[in-house]
Amino acid sequence: xxxxxxxxxxxxxxxxxxxxxxxxxxxxxxxxxxxxxxxxxxxxxxxxxxxxxxxxxxxxxxxxxxxxxxxxxxxxxxxxxxxxxxxxxxxxxxxxxxxxx
Length: 101
Description:
Layout: H1 2-10, H2 12-30, H3 34-46, H4 49-60, H5 67-97
């Protein structure tokens, strides 16, 4: 328990930043009309390329004996890639609706 409290106290600013980011994200997305929600989200999914690059960078700098960090980094790359591909697929399907037959 003491280790958890030390971890929280050492990374207090980062925890505040993440919590505030969640609140700002909910407010921004909540203010978007329903008609624009799907195009906005499909475009935002493509931004997860930053997550992929960040996860790869972290994985390159982690100690090879730290299995937990490597597994979490691999999951971040995998899920970020799935999100990017899904964003492009949704965007492509939406653009197909506007093409002339």
